[in-house]
Amino acid sequence: MVDTPLSPAPRASGPEERLLLGYALVWTAVVGWSVNAVVSKVVLESAGLSAFRLAEVRATGSALLLFAAVAIFRPAALRVTKRELAFLALFGTAGLACVQLFYFLAIERLEIGIALVIQYLAPVFVALWARFVAKETVRRRLWVGIALSLSGLCLVVQLWQGLALDGAGVAACLGAAVTYAGYVLMAERSLRAGRDAVSLLAWGFLFAALLWAVIQPWWSFPVGTIDGEAPLLGRLDDLSAPVPLLLAYVVVFGTVLPFVLLVTALHHVRATRATVLAMLEPVLAAVVAYLWLGEELAAIQIAGAVLVLIGVGLAQTARTSTPST
Length: 325
Known about the structure:
Helix content: 55-70%
Structural class: mainly alpha
Largest sheet: 2 strands, antiparallel
Number of helices: 12
């Protein structure tokens, strides 16, 4: 005799459901980052806040929210050794603080889509580090990916015109790519050592905020620039929003929430695949910038962006020993 339950047992989520959930989480994070790029540009251009101050606000706000969340729900995760504390300080200052600064400097001078395409050369640098420094086994597709990325980059910056784009903006993009690669490598090392991603980000943003507080003390903050409303620019120039509300979006919906979503996605999707999925950000950000700000890219630049993203995807998947978180 077979026992029949009075009500059907809940069906366990299978691999496909978990994979789809992971994809949804990554794509939601990408939407947040893409809209955040445009909101950040509005703050930089309309509200008159400098890239340095915006980086300070983003780091400090994120540190407060993440540190408070970990302290409330997982206080034991905040314990660190003296040796790890030095590493976390480097991660926050040379990693998070610098990548945010270069990112804001880049979108201040360039179209958002172009800036993000150049910044997404970071996985190529990560793969090169894995091959020549970490001595990892890397598939041959790495070299194809690098060739495609460099070819696409030449089209994006229109090299035959003597670098038609703002030189300082391109330099900032490359700086963002290099520091982003360093941030990813340091994060990967810390995760391998057993540090969870949320507490890692909490400590990282805390040290980034402390660095900015030393460079730009809070008592010198230009309060007058955020005390009021800012026009939304582009096709929404007739509308305006309170600057504090825009800054809150940058911190909550443009930083903390996307990071949490991406970290949660790593329970369902491998890190390599999640990073490749996140490459949709330049495309979606360019679409948002076009719909909102009216920023347009030439056809040759769009073709170059496609080549860059294909090349980055090949380079990112060339690593054979990427950890799962």
